[in-house]
Every structure is written in structure tokens, then in C-alpha cells.
Amino acid sequence: VLSAQVDMEFTHLRSHMKVYPCKNTAHCYASQKRFIDRTTLCQLINKVTDNLVNIHDKTGEFLLRLDDGRVIDTKGWAGWEWTHGVGLYGIWQYYQQTGDTRMRDIIDNWFC
Predict the structure, then answer these.
(1) For residue 53, what is the DSSP state?
(2) What is the pLDDT of residue 72?
(3) pLDDT number for residue 99
(4) Residue 99 Ramachandran class (φ > 0 left, ψ -120 to 50 alpha, else beta)
(5) Kind and range of the H or E run holding 45
(6) CA 100 – CA 84 distance, rounded (Å)
(7) Residue ranges per domain, the chain?
(8) 4, 29, 108, 111: most buried, per Cβ within 10 A?
(9) In 3-state terms, what secondary structure has residue 63?
(10) In this predicted model, what pLDDT tens digit does every residue of 58-92 receive, in sequence order?
(11) Using an 8 Å Cβ cutoff, are 81 and 74 in contact?
């Protein structure tokens, strides 16, 4: 159920974005030539995702202390800042393209 809500949110966001076509098809990802094979790419994405969701600022070194008293965790996965949205959007895109339920579970768990 939560995934459907997230899907609606991302669909709404995408409806406001302009997508420009690739003018140089030799450099488009849609072309047949790849610089990395799919298996290696998926392994890298999984590694980056694992690092992203398991990062912790145990010392508070990366906390951003604002003049109004707010404290923002700029590195950890537990808070909310625009960087978390970028990560979640990337994970959602990967899930939509691959059907990797582990990625969907990461999103569901973040929102719970």
C-alpha cells in the first residue's frame, strides 16, 4: 500500500519535469554500446545503496547546526533533507526498472 502512495508522489513529481531528448545518439544510454555490463552495474548500485542506507554520523561531525537552533543530519539516512529525497528517488527509479523488491523494501522502511 505504501509503495502505491510513493509511486503516486513520484508520478506527480515526474509530471512537472521536462525531459529533453538525446541529440547525440552515439552517447545516449539507449545506444547498444555500453561501457559497463548490466551485472556489474547492478552490483555497483547495490553497493552504493547499502552504503547510503547504512551510513551513520556517530561523532556528530557532519551535523549542520543552524542559527535558528535546528540541527540537520547531513550524512545519516534517518533524517530528512533534500539529499535523502535524491537517494530515495534514485532507489525508486531502480526499483521501477528492475523490480528489485529489496529496493522497494528500503523505500517502504524509510517511510515507516
Answers:
(1) H
(2) 83
(3) 94
(4) left
(5) helix 38-53
(6) 20
(7) 2-111
(8) 108
(9) strand
(10) 888 888 899 999 888 877 887 777 878 889 999 99
(11) yes
Cell representation of residue 75: 550524512
Helix, strand, or coil here: 4?
Answer: helix
Residue range 2-47, pLDDT digits in tens: 567 767 777 777 777 777 777 766 666 555 666 788 899 999 999 9
Q: Burial code of 30-58, b = ≥16 C-beta within 10 A, e = fewer? A: eeeeeeeeeeeeeeebeeebeebeeeeee
In the chain, the amino acid numbered 21 is P
Residue 96's contacts (CB-CB under 8 Å, 6 or more residues apart) are none
| 65, amino acid identity | R
Cell 515507516 appears where?
Answer: 112
